[in-house]
Amino acid sequence: MCLAVPGRVLDIEERDGTRMAAVDFGGVVKEVCLEYLPDLQVGEYAIVHVGFALQRLDEESARQTLELFAELGMLQEEFGDPWEMAAEAGGVLPPAREEARKQ
Predict the structure, then answer these.
(1) What is the pLDDT of residues 23-57, one digit of tens each?
(2) CB distance 10 to 23 below 8 Å
(3) What region does 27 belong to: left with phi over 0, alpha with psi -120 to 50, or beta?
(4) Residue 2, helix vs strand vs coil
(5) What local confidence, expressed as pLDDT, does residue 28 receive?
(6) In the beta sheet, which residues pair with residue 20?
């Protein structure tokens, strides 16, 4: 699944004529293109889809959405380690989850 996920802009730079940002999605930081929101500033939130910031979002809405996605496991699905997810799909739990299951 490919979600539009809210994230907070941490840093902005111009790279080869394109405005790019480091964006925090609840602890996962990814590079995002800001060309569709040229006036977005550090500290603001935006909805991001496939690497592009598409719409400005207020902080409270962003936090609520991130919390809901985390509760539903959707952040892990969107940003999780693909090798770990493939192992889980094959029935192998990562060591930390295996330990938690034993307790």
Answers:
(1) 998 788 899 999 999 999 999 999 999 899 999 99
(2) yes
(3) left
(4) coil
(5) 82
(6) 13, 33
